[in-house]
C-alpha cells in the first residue's frame, strides 16, 4: 500500500507547481532557446542562422565579454561576501540578546524599498557635488573632495557593487530561520564540554545548517545573475561598458536594438550559467544528500 | 485540513483545463486579440468604443489639458463614440508596455507616446490615416509636421505639436558677469561662459543620464550651425557620425564638461540640470518651452524667478523647429478606425492645440498663427523659431534608440577625457551600424 | 590573552558590526521620510538638509495625483493570496523533492533552477498572451497566479533546504504510527518547518508587493492595479514632484515593514512554542 500511495503522493504534491511552471515558464523558455538560433529583428526579420548568434557573441562582441566578466565577478562577490556578512549577522542575532528582533527588522528594511527608490538614494549619496560620501570625506580630510563615484571609471565598479553587497537582510533571515530550526538539545552536550560561543558557531551550528547556507548562496548568486534595475537606473552600464552586466546588455539589445534573437542567445547563456551555478553550489554544500 | 486539500485539488483541475486550452491556441497569434475584442461588445446601441492608452497622468504637464479636451470631446461625440482610457504612468513604462502589446498584436486603438517615435518599430500595425484626413485637416497643419509622421507617402501619425527649442538664460546672472546679450556665435558663447566663470557663476546646466537631454540639445545645436550640419540634424536615423563637423561639436561639448558646468553634471539627469537652473546655481539651460510653467511654480523656484529668465536662439541663429510624432491609430476594424480618426482629429484641432500651448507650452503645428494667451517666454520662443536662420530636429526623434542610449554611457568618459571626440563619434557610429 | 579580554573584544566587534549595519540599513528610509517633508526647492538646493517645517503637503498631493489609496487593497489581496498559494504549492513540491527519490526528480529540479534565470523581458510577451487566452488578463486572479509563479523557483530552493535540515526520524515515527502521507505532511512536517515557511512568506510577499513590470503589462484598469504603478505618477520626462514621490514611497514602504514585523512575530511565536514542546 505504501509504495502505491507514495507514487500518488509524489505526483499530487508536485502537480500544482509543475502546472504553474509549465503554464508560465515552459513556453517562454522554449521560445528563448529556439529563437536564440534565429536572426530575429523588428520589421519581420526572422530566419534561422544556426550558431551564428553564439559565434558572434563570443568572438566579435567585446561588450558581451565585458558584461559576462562583470556578471561573474559580481556573482562571486555576492555568493561569498554578501553571504558571509549575512551569516555573521545572523549568528550574532541568533544569541537572542535583548532587542534582537529589532535588528532583524532593521536589516530587512533596504529589501522593502523598491529598486527605483534605492537608485535615487544612491545617486544622491555618491553625488559628486553634494553627496554624503564626499561631504564626509571632505570634513575628515579637511579639503574639498569632488570625486564622481559612480561615473569615474576608477571607482564606478566598486560603487555599483556597494549598492547591494552590504545589504544582506535576506540572507540574515534565511540563515536565522535555519539556526532556529536546530533543536536546542544538540547544543547542550557542547555547552557542558565548555566550548565557547565562537567555537560552537563554527564547529556545530554552521555545519548543521549546511543546506540552508547552500540555499543562501544560491539565492544570492542567482539574484546577482538577474540584477539589472539598480544598474540601469544609476550608471546605465556606463561609463562606457564598465558596469554593464549580462541582464542589462540583454535588456538593451532587445528593447533598444530590437535584436531579439541575439538577446535570447544571451538569455540562454544566462540560464546555462545559472544552472551550472546551482549545480556546483549544490555539490559544494552537498545539498542533495538527505542524510542529515 | 481535508478541505484545503480538496480545494487545492479542484484548483488543480481548473489549472489542467486552462493549460489544455492554452496549448490549443498559444501557437497562433490570433488567440490574444480575438478574445479581447469580445469583451468589449457590450456598449450602447450604435456607440463605438475605442481604447486609448495615455501617460498624461499624475504630474504630467499634459494631464489638465487632456482632461479638458476629453470632456469637450465627450460632449460633442459622446453618443457615438466612447473612449476607454487606460492610464499608464511614466513615459518609459508606456513605451515598454506598447512594445509588449505590439508583439502580441494587441495595441490599443489610439496611442500617443508623447514624442517617442514608435512609427519605425510598429509601422506594420499602425493605420495609414490618409483616407481619413480631409482637405481642411490636411491644409490646416504645417507640412513639416505631416512629413515627420509619414513613411513612404503614408501618414501614420496625427500631429499635435511642434518641437521648438532654444535655450533659457538667467538675465540677473548675465548682468552680474557683465554680459549684455546672448551670444550670436559659439566663440562669443564661450567668451560669455568665461565671464560667468570669472564672476563665480557656473555657466551651464548639463546632464548625461537617460539620453543626456540637455547636453545633447547643445551638441545638436553646435552641429547644426553649418549648412552640412543643419542637413545632418534633419536626417532621420543617421548611421555615420564620423563627420568633421560632428567631431568638432563633440570637442566643444567636451570643453563644456571640463570647464563650464557643475560637478554633478556627469551622471546627472534632467532633474539635476533643471534643479541647478531653478536654484540659480547655473546661468544657462537648453530646453523647450514646456519648462516655462515651472518658472512660475514657487514650490520649485523663488518668487519672481520667471522675470529673470530670457530665451535665446542658439549661436548661429539655430533653433530646434521640427515636427513631432503625434497620435497613432492601431484600430483593427473599419468602424473603430473611423471613430479613432474622429477622436484624433478632435484632439489635434485648432481649439485643442490652442489649449495645449496655453496649458502646457507645447507649440502648435498649425499653419496659421493662433491667438492664444501664453507666457511671454513661450511667445518669444515661437518668434525665435519663425525668424531663425537654421532649423533643426532633435536627436531623440532622429537617432536610433540604441545610439541615444550609447550617448548616455559615453558622455561620462568624454567628460573625464577618457575618450576623444573622434572615439565618441566612432562609438555612436558602431551603435548605429548595429541596426541592420 | 586572558579570557575576559577576549570576550570583551568579541563583544566590541559585535556591537560595532550591529551599529554599522543598522546605520546603513536605516539611512535610506530615514532619507525618504525626511525628504517627504521638504519642498521641491529644498530638495534641489540640498539633498541632505533637514526639512524647514513638517507639513504634510507632499502626502496630500500624492493622494490627489495618484490612485494610491485604491491600489492599496489590490496590492494587499494580490500579495497575500500569492504568498499563500506559493507556500502551499511549493512546500508540497519541495517536500517530495527533499525526501523521496523518484524518476524525473533531477530533470524537474533542473527545470526549476533554470527558470530562476529566465530574463523577465523574455517572459512578458508569452505570459501576456497566455493570460489573455485564458481570460485572466486584467484580473486579480491572473496577477495572483503570475506572482505565485514568479516566486516559485526562489521559494522552492529555500523551503527544500529547510526540509533537508529537519531530521527524518519524526516522520518515520509518524508513518509507523499509521499516519498517511497527507496527514504526516500537514500535521508533522509543516509545523516543524514553520520558521522556514515564514521566511519564504516574507520573501514572496515583498516580491509581490514591489513587482512592477508584470503588474503593468497584465492589467489595464485601476481596479486591478498595484502600488508600484502608483509610484510612476510623480516623475515624467520633464516634470517631477519629488516631495509627493517621497511621500508616496513612505506610504508604500511603511505598511510592508509592518507586515514584515507581523510575519516575523509569527516565526518567533512558533519557535518559542516549539522549544517548549521539545
UniProtKB/TrEMBL annotation, chain B:
Protein name stated in the entry: Raffinose/stachyose/melibiose transport system substrate-binding protein
Gene3D superfamilies: Periplasmic binding protein-like II
Family membership noted in the UniProt record: Belongs to the bacterial solute-binding protein 1 family.
Keywords noted in UniProt: Cell membrane, Lipoprotein, Membrane, Palmitate, Signal, Transport
GO terms of biological process kind: transmembrane transport
Pfam family, one: SBP_bac_8
Lineage: Bacteria, Bacillati, Bacillota, Clostridia, Lachnospirales
Leader sequence segment: 1-24
InterPro entries: Bact_solute-bd_prot1, SBP, SBP_1_CS
PANTHER family: ARABINOSE-BINDING PROTEIN-RELATED (PTHR43649), POLYGALACTURONAN_RHAMNOGALACTURONAN-BINDING PROTEIN YTCQ (PTHR43649:SF33)
TrEMBL record, chain C:
Cross-referenced PROSITE patterns: ABC_TM1
UniProt feature coiled coil, ranges: none
Localization (cell): Cell membrane
Transmembrane residue ranges: 12-34, 76-97, 109-128, 140-163, 184-207, 242-263
Residues annotated as signal peptide: none
Membrane topology: Multi-pass membrane protein
One of the GO BP terms on file: transmembrane transport
Domain spans labelled ABC transmembrane type-1: 72-263
Alphabetical UniProt keywords: Cell membrane, Membrane, Transmembrane, Transmembrane helix, Transport
GO cellular component terms listed in the entry, alphabetical order: plasma membrane
Pfam families in the cross-refs: BPD_transp_1 (PF00528)
Family: Belongs to the binding-protein-dependent transport system permease family.
Name by which UniProt lists this protein: Raffinose/stachyose/melibiose transport system permease protein
Top-level taxonomy: Bacteria, Bacillati, Bacillota, Clostridia, Lachnospirales
Amino acid at each position: 500500500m505504501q509504495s502505491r500511495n507514495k507514487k500518488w503522493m509524489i505526483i499530487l504534491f508536485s502537480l500544482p507547481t509543475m502546472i504553474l511552471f509549465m503554464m508560465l515558464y515552459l513556453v517562454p523558455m522554449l521560445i528563448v532557446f529556439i529563437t536564440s538560433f534565429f536572426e530575429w529583428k523588428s520589421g519581420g526579420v526572422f530566419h534561422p542562422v544556426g550558431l551564428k548568434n553564439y559565434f558572434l557573441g563570443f568572438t566579435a562582441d567585446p561588450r558581451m565579454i565585458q558584461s559576462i566578466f562583470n556578471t561573474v565577478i559580481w556573482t562571486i562577490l555576492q555568493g561569498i561576501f554578501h553571504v558571509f556578512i549575512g551569516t555573521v549577522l545572523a549568528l550574532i542575532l541568533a544569541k537572542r540578546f535583548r532587542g534582537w528582533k529589532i535588528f532583524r527588522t532593521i536589516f530587512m528594511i533596504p529589501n522593502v524599498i523598491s529598486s527605483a527608490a534605492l537608485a535615487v538614494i544612491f545617486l544622491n549619496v555618491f553625488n559628486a557635488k553634494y553627496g554624503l560620501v564626499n561631504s564626509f570625506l571632505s570634513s575628515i580630510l579637511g579639503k574639498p573632495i569632488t570625486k564622481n563615484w559612480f561615473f569615474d571609471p576608477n571607482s564606478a565598479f566598486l560603487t555599483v557593487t556597494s549598492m547591494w553587497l552590504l545589504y544582506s537582510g535576506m540572507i540574515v533571515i534565511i540563515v536565522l530561520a535555519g539556526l532556529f530550526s536546530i533543536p536546542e538539545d544538540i547544543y547542550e552536550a557542547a555547552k557542558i564540554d565548555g566550548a565557547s560561543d565562537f567555537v560552537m558557531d563554527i564547529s556545530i551550528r554552521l555545519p548543521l545548517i549546511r543546506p540552508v547556507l547552500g540555499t543562501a548562496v544560491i539565492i544570492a548568486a542567482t539574484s546577482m545573475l538577474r540584477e539589472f534595475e539598480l544598474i540601469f537606473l544609476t550608471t546605465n552600464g556606463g561609463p562606457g561598458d564598465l558596469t554593464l552586466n549580462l541582464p542589462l546588455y540583454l535588456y538593451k539589445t532587445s528593447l533598444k536594438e530590437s535584436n531579439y534573437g541575439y538577446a535570447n542567445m544571451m538569455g540562454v547563456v544566462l540560464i546555462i550559467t545559472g544552472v551550472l551555478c546551482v549545480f556546483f553550489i549544490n555539490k559544494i554544500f552537498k545539498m542533495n544528500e538527505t542524510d542529515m | 485540513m481535508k478541505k484545503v486539500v480538496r480545494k487545492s485539488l479542484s484548483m488543480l483541475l481548473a489549472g489542467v483545463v486552462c493549460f489544455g486550452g492554452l496549448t490549443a491556441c498559444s501557437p497562433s497569434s490570433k488567440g490574444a486579440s480575438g478574445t479581447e475584442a469580445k469583451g468589449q461588445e457590450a456598449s450602447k446601441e450604435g456607440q463605438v468604443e475605442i481604447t486609448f492608452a495615455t501617460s498624461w497622468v499624475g504630474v504630467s504637464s499634459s494631464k489638465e489639458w487632456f482632461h479638458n479636451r476629453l470632456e469637450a470631446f465627450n460632449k460633442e461625440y459622446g453618443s457615438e463614440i466612447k473612449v476607454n482610457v487606460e492610464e499608464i504612468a511614466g513615459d518609459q513604462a508606456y513605451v515598454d508596455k506598447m512594445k509588449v502589446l505590439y508583439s502580441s498584436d494587441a495595441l490599443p486603438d489610439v496611442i500617443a507616446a508623447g514624442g517617442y517615435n514608435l512609427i519605425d518599430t510598429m509601422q506594420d500595425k499602425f493605420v495609414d490615416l490618409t483616407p481619413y484626413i480631409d482637405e481642411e485637416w490636411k491644409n490646416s497643419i504645417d507640412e513639416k509636421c505631416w512629413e515627420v509622421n509619414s513613411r513612404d507617402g503614408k501618414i501614420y501619425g496625427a500631429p499635435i505639436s511642434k518641437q521648438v527649442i532654444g535655450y533659457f538664460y538667467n538675465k540677473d546672472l548675465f548682468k552680474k558677469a557683465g554680459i549684455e546679450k546672448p551670444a550670436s556665435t559659439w566663440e562669443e558663447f564661450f567668451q560669455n561662459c568665461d565671464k560667468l566663470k570669472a564672476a563665480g557663476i557656473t555657466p551651464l546646466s548639463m546632464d548625461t543620464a537617460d539620453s543626456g537631454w540637455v547636453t545633447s540639445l547643445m551638441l545638436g545645436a553646435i552641429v547644426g550651425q553649418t549648412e552640412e550640419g543643419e542637413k545632418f540634424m534633419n536626417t532621420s536615423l543617421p548611421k555615420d557620425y564620423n563627420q568633421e563637423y560632428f567631431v568638432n561639436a563633440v570637442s566643444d561639448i567636451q570643453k563644456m564638461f571640463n570647464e563650464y558646468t557643475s560637478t554633478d553634471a556627469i551622471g546627472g539627469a534632467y532633474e539635476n540640470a533643471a534643479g541647478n537652473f531653478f536654484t540659480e546655481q547655473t546661468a544657462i539651460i537648453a530646453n523647450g518651452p514646456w519648462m516655462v510653467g515651472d518658472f512660475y511654480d514657487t514650490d520649485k523656484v523663488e518668487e519672481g524667478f520667471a522675470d529673470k529668465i530670457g530665451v535665446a536662439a542658439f549661436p548661429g541663429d539655430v533653433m530646434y523647429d521640427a515636427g513631432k510624432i503625434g497620435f497613432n491609430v492601431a484600430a483593427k476594424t473599419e468602424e473603430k478606425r473611423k471613430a479613432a480618426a474622429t477622436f484624433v482629429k478632435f484632439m489635434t484641432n485648432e481649439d485643442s492645440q490652442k489649449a495645449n500651448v496655453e496649458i502646457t507650452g507645447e507649440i502648435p503645428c498649425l499653419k496659421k498663427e493662433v491667438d492664444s494667451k501664453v507666457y511671454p517666454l513661450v511667445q518669444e520662443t515661437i518668434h525665435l523659431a519663425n525668424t531663425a536662420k537654421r532649423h533643426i530636429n532633435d536627436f531623440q526623434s532622429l537617432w536610433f534608440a540604441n545610439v541615444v542610449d550609447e550617448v548616455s554611457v559615453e558622455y561620462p568618459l568624454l567628460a573625464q577625457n577618457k575618450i576623444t571626440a573622434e572615439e565618441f563619434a566612432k562609438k555612436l557610429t558602431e551603435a548605429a551600424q548595429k541596426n541592420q | 590573552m586572558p579570557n575576559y579580554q577576549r570576550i570583551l573584544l568579541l563583544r566590541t566587534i559585535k556591537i560595532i558590526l550591529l551599529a554599522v549595519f543598522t546605520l546603513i540599513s536605516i539611512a535610506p528610509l530615514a532619507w525618504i521620510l525626511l525628504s517627504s517633508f521638504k519642498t521641491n526647492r529644498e530638495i534641489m538646493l540640498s539633498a541632505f538638509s533637514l526639512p524647514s517645517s513638517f507639513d504634510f503637503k507632499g502626502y496630500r498631493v500624492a493622494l490627489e495625483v495618484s490612485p494610491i489609496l485604491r491600489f492599496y487593497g489590490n496590492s494587499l489581496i494580490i500579495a497575500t493570496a500569492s504568498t499563500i498559494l506559493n507556500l502551499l504549492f511549493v512546500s508540497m513540491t519541495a517536500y517530495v523533492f527533499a525526501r523521496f527519490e523518484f524518476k524525473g526528480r533531477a530533470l524537474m529540479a533542473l527545470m526549476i533552477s533554470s527558470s530562476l534565470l529566465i530574463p523577465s523581458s523574455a517572459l512578458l510577451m508569452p505570459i501576456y498572451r497566455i493570460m489573455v487566452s485564458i481570460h485572466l488578463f486584467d484580473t486579480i486572479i491572473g496577477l495572483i497566479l503570475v506572482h505565485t509563479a514568479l516566486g516559485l523557483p526562489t521559494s522552492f530552493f529555500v523551503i527544500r533546504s529547510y526540509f533537508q535540515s529537519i531530521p527524518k526520524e519524526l516522520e518515520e515515527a509518524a508513518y509507523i504510527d499509521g499516519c498517511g502521507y497527507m496527514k504526516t505532511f500537514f500535521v508533522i512536517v509543516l509545523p516543524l518547518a514553520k520558521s522556514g515557511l515564514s521566511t519564504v512568506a516574507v520573501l514572496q510577499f515583498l516580491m509581490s508587493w514591489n513587482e512592477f513590470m508584470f503588474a503593468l503589462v497584465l492589467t489595464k484598469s485601476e481596479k486591478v492595479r498595484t502600488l508600484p504603478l502608483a509610484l510612476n505618477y510623480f516623475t515624467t520626462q520633464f516634470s517631477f514632484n519629488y516631495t509627493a514621490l517621497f511621500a508616496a514611497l513612505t506610504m508604500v514602504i511603511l505598511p510592508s515593514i509592518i507586515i514584515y514585523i507581523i510575519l516575523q512575530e509569527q516565526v518567533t511565536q512558533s519557535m518559542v512554542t516549539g522549544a517548549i514542546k521539545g
